[in-house]
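ARCHIVE CARD
Drawer: 12
Card no.: 0347
Subject: one protein chain, sequence and derived structure
Cross-reference: see card 0346
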Amino acid sequence: MQKILILINDAPYGTEKAYNALRLANQLGREHEDVEVRIFLMADAANCAIAGQNTPNGYYNTERMLKFSISKGAKVKICGSCAEARGLKNIQLIEGAEISTMAELTNWVADSDKVITF
């Protein structure tokens, strides 16, 4: 099984980097069951996994996008120090996303066939 790591660094809203990264992850999930998608959220992208996001109708929502990724088998991890720096350690995150470490990211990088950065 091919393993693809998508590393997201940008905030969920304001630019479209996180949106486009999640579009890619979700398309992989739809069309390539033989691919293991891994998503690692760093820096302001840690905010993508906050539960209870309320965006205007017709606007993308990173919470819903991540939930779809997870429903298709993607693994989602959030940089622990990034989450802590943003006050997210005790905030409810979406189900299936977990706080992680740089050591786990290092293992994912070493174990992935492709690493894509947004």
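Annotation on reverse: The chain has one domain: 2-117. The mean pLDDT is 96.
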